[in-house]
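=== Structural record ===
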Amino acid sequence: MKFLVSLIAVVSLSGCASSTYFAQHSPNVNEATVYIIREHAEPIAWNMNILIDKQKAASVANRSFVKFSVPAGDHNVAFDWPILASSLTVRAKIPFKGGETRYFVISGMSRVTGWYLVVIETTQSTRVIEVTKADAEKIMQRLKK
């Protein structure tokens, strides 16, 4: 019973709000501005962590977005779920140019596919796609409503 109460507390508090850990500078020739938009990506109970070169840049709640700056150049980007989410990390090497703004949308699903005594089997997917500024602005406006 204590375990169940603890688990419910962790799930309730873990996906509360989005936050950024990297600075948000004004556009300049040495840095790129990055928007990460999570319109709907399961599992919805947890925030997704965005890592740039293994450093946490942001944490994104479902139906929200974050904005941060990264130095120009090639960076290893990881879209990482907490361990309790049981979802795979999406990794990519992404080149960023100074002065540019890039928009990435995260989507995904999680489905229970079987039960075996006390084990639950799930199938999960996470997608990250780059979108245009116009498409990103439409999505962000919907999220603000």
